[in-house]
Design brief:
The strands form three sheets. This protein has a six-stranded mixed sheet. A five-stranded parallel sheet has the order 1-4-7-10-13. A hairpin with a 4-residue loop joins strand 14 and strand 15. It is an alpha/beta fold and about 260 residues long. The longest helix is centred in the C-terminal third of the chain and has 31 residues. It folds into two domains: about 170 residues, 3 Solenoid (UDP N-Acetylglucosamine Acyltransferase, domain 1), CATH 2.160.10; about 80 residues. It is built from seven helices and 15 strands.
Amino acid sequence: MFSRIRSDIQTILDRDPAARSGFEVLTCYPGLHAMVMHRWAHACWKNGLKWLGRFISNVSRFLTGIEIHPAAIIGNGVFFDHAMGVVVGETAEIGDGCTIYQGVTLGGTSLYKGAKRHPTLGRNVVVGAGAKVLGGFTVGDGAKVGSNAVVTKPVPAGATAVGNPARIIEAKTDAVREEVASKMGFSAYGVTQNDDPLSQAIRGLIDYTAEQDKQIAMLWQALEKLSNGVINGADCLPEDAAKNMDADIEKLNKLID
């Protein structure tokens, strides 16, 4: 038991830059206290002392603000960072090396007793603050769940789930998108020095619409002159009008891809 506690303390020291000493972690980190008490509760549950397991779980919840069902399976090196308001359901499984932040729910969507109702987290999964992972599916090894995401379907290994409902961003696809985006002068992940990608796309659409209005006005003027026999058809538009229109379309496609 003491070797596991030492391992838990070292895990927190490795992952939390705010942790200054093992004594501080031992006395001031509710995530560590919740893990220790869960092991007691889980041992009681497995040995048929279910009421005692639930009682220890409730005492842990009262003391730490972290609710872990005594039947839940938690691996080694799991770090509950801050973790106030975390809820881990009965059939949930958390793999080795996972990091779970405050407000996370590993919940179920089924009311059938005995069924696998809660998610399974693979090894080294990171679940951001406020995320809800709901259902009896698997989140693959090394995956990440963004803050406040609501995940209701499996997440492949190494992928990232963000949003509500969560969309899956494959690591390989995201790398390709990042490479393409870098050629356009901004990062696909978010804000740059000049602007964020969504604003650039919207501004591009507005500029494109304004340019099209200008082109249409020129066409109407040319048609009016043709109908009045003022000029020849070959002279009705500037020479580079079609070329400018093609360039605008190409620019717009880059912005919204």
